[in-house]
Amino acid sequence: MAHSDGSLMMEEMHYTATGPAKVPRKLCLIINDASGSYSEDAVDALRSDLADAGLTVARCITCPDQDLPEPAELDADGIDCVAVFAGDGTISGTVKALSGWAGAVLPLPGGTMNLLCHRLHGEAEAGDIVRTLADGKAKLVCPPIIRSDEGQSLVSISAGPGVQWYHVRETMRDGSLGELLNESSDAVDHTLNGPQVLCREPRLGRSEGYPLIELVPLDREDGIRIVGYTADTIGGYIRQGFAIATRHFRDGPHEVLGHAERIVLANAQGEQLQLSFDGEPTCGAAEVEFAVDRCPVKLIAVKA
To answer: Cβ neighbours of residue 65 under 8 Å, at least 6 residues apart?
Structure first.
């Protein structure tokens, strides 16, 4: 069943601890050097913080050039914790790769938005999080996620033609000004004229759909928060578009449609549904079912 409740904002979310986090014997450190906020200085500072805290980095993986680890190889190396210094997308991919693993994942704020880290650690910086873990004061959590045949999400799923703006974000990071202008023009056109996304089951919101619907997993029984984002003028689309590209779109005009354990989103014209899982864009079927579930591996938090 769905119901309307706009009182719980993402910034206020926290997760319930399932127990204390053990101080790791050995760590695997994952970094993403393609992240928009990556810097060698930040990685060097993190390595120094880990060493000062007495935490042993037995293996380091650099994404996207190297493959994410598998549970069996971590167990063979005696590694009981994977620290991910990256953005939400890399953290989410690591959690998926380690599904069912007995160890724990430590998300660290090494991305642009760090929404998951904000929920787990509040405003704590990476060095403070590491010291809290080493002092035996961190907790284990098993947060809700959203699953579908197209992928899974720890933070949020976006759907609709507005997802085109995530490609603009990549151009903002790596492309020229000319490429950025072209990508932005295409994104405006697609958002204005592309097929809207419908909340089909349960039937919620506008019958004509939205340029963007966001699904957020909540730590509650009816676990998916459903939000529709609108923009009624070309100026609004442009402003909202750049907000989407930088993942600040939650500040734009929106409508809380309700909460549900299960939801089906559909492309209004029966085309592929444009999707973004934790900030990583992809395409899915014309109609996609989403359901709330539990994270397949324990996460380490200092805020819980």
So the answer is: 33
Residues in the chain: 304
Q: What is the pLDDT along the chain (304 residues), one digit of tens a residue?
A: 343 333 334 445 668 899 999 999 999 999 998 876 788 999 999 999 999 999 999 999 999 999 999 999 999 999 999 999 999 999 999 999 999 999 999 999 998 778 999 999 999 999 999 999 999 999 999 999 999 999 999 999 999 998 887 777 666 666 666 676 777 777 777 777 889 999 999 999 999 999 999 999 987 666 899 999 887 766 676 676 667 666 666 666 778 999 999 999 999 999 999 999 998 889 999 999 999 999 999 999 998 7
When the candidates are 3.40.50.10330, 3.30.300.10, 3.30.565.10, 3.10.20.740, the CATH number that belongs to 22-137 is 3.40.50.10330
From the options 2.60.200, 2.40.128, 1.10.3210, 3.30.450, give the CATH code of 151-294. Answer: 2.60.200
Q: Of 172, 161, 168, 210, whose CA–CA distance to 185 is shortest? A: 168
Amino acid at the residue 78: G
pTM of the predicted structure, to 2 decimals: 0.88
- Tokens representing 32 are 């993403």
Strand order from edge to edge, sheet including 104-109: 17-20, 139-141, 298-301, 104-109, 81-86, 27-32, 57-63
